[in-house]
Amino acid sequence: MSKLWGARFDKKSDPLADLFTFSISYDHRLARYDVIGSIAHARMLAKQRIIPQSDAARIIAGLKKILKQIKDGRFKFDPQAEDIHTDIQNRLKGLAGAAAEKLHTARSRNDQVVLDMKLYCRHEAAQLMASVKFLQKEILGFAGRNKDVIIPAYTHLQAAQVVLLAHHMLAYIEMLERDRTRLVDAAQRCDTMPLGSCALSGTSLKTDRAYLAKLLGFSRVAANSMDVVSDRDFIVEMIGACAMIATHLSRIAEDLILWASREFDLVDIDGGFCTGSSIMPHKKNPDVLELIRGSSSKVIGRLAEIHVLLKGLPLTYNRDLQLDKPALFESVDTAQFMLLVLSRVFATLKLKKENAAQRVLDESFFTVDAMDYLVKKGVSYRQAHDILGRMVRDCLDHGKPISSLSTDELIRYSPLLEGDVKKLFNPRMSVKIKSSSGSTNPGFVGRQLKTWGKKLHA
Ligand code: ARG
For a tag site, which of 260, 294, 360, 408 has the least CB within 10 Å? Predict the structure, then answer.
């Protein structure tokens, strides 16, 4: 198929060079944005009398036919075309005849491809935001179904203190909310209209960029033609937002993988999201979650790739930039897939409430509460730490629960330790006495659940 630049050369391009340089095998995904951009461009050209109204009408009618094919799924990209811009241009020739040759007036593929990519990012950012919200809802649902359950929480993967399961789930919801706002940000960075920059310096033809921005739903036009044809920051940010989602989902998956182990035994992952072993008949493996964790590496790798791709490029457009697409598409697709799969895992996840109830009876979870008890009686934090430290060590050495110490035994550690301290060695009490905002206090957590419920279901 004809290239958009063939006349300059006295010989055909080498088939191997074609194979190496063509981007159609992946940038065909930009087809609908390319057509939408071209329809607006043709309208603008006619309004400005750069091309005759009749030619614009023919071009637009042809482009609309192509758009319909794309929307109906009938569009088959031509593997012989160099890229999607060439493919659409060639097709239009068949539909609009000679008029088609006027479409590319006051435009270059350099500003055209940036437009396509920005339209794509804007659309995908909205899709990803919806998927993030969907996952937040499923997590909230899981929290709500297990509202009063208390679980152990860890630092250094050592049992630390007890929290409400809902508190732990609300932490995920906060992480995801930041991810959502990162997507809002990334989409905002796509909100400058590139067309009119042409190859790099602008055009001497009387285009109307503000009109184009209005037609295409951008709030402003890009201020510098050189910047806009070489800027791929918006792609870095979009992949960055995907990488952060992927990292978060990987951490959540890791929690669930641990909780599903026989050692933790806190959750039961639905059989539909597990696999068996070809040799060990007893195994129920959390492969789906492991692949969520594993998939994150693809997106994180793509983020490194796009930085490396850009860092050595002189202004303005360089063909290297074509390789921004596989990086972006894979990042977006992977993040989307991960979000949807993890949503299903949460929708079907079962908490092993009895096991959780057993686990949180371990009294070492409550030493900080006992320290606070002493601090409230005027003991310094340092001293309180020493007192509890000695108590825990003795109890561990003698295999004795702290709550079994008699008043006399307690007084040996500190005269301020009275019998009522033993009330604190209880998981329900431990969450109840937390009073700082943002803590695991049931009243506070309950309000958070309500607030998020309203926000997510609004
Ligand atoms: N396929 C190219 C890309 O994605 C389109 C722009 C080509 N521009 C050029 N001057 N060769 O970057």
Answer: 408
